[in-house]
Amino acid sequence: MILDSFRLDGRVALVTGSSRGLGQGAAVALAEAGADIALVDRGDGSETADRIAATGRRVHRIQLDLGAATPAELAGAIDEAVAELGRLDILVNNAGTIRRTPAADHSATDWDEVLALNLDAVFHLSQAAGRLMIAQGHGRIINIASMLSFQGGLFVPGYAASKHAVAGLTKALANEWAASGVTVNAIAPGYMATDNTAPIRADVEREATILARIPAGRWGTPEDLQGAFVFLASDAAAYVTGAIVPVDGGWLVR
Question: Of 29, 119, 139, 238, which has the fewest Cβ atoms less than 10 A away?
Answer without folding.
Answer: 238
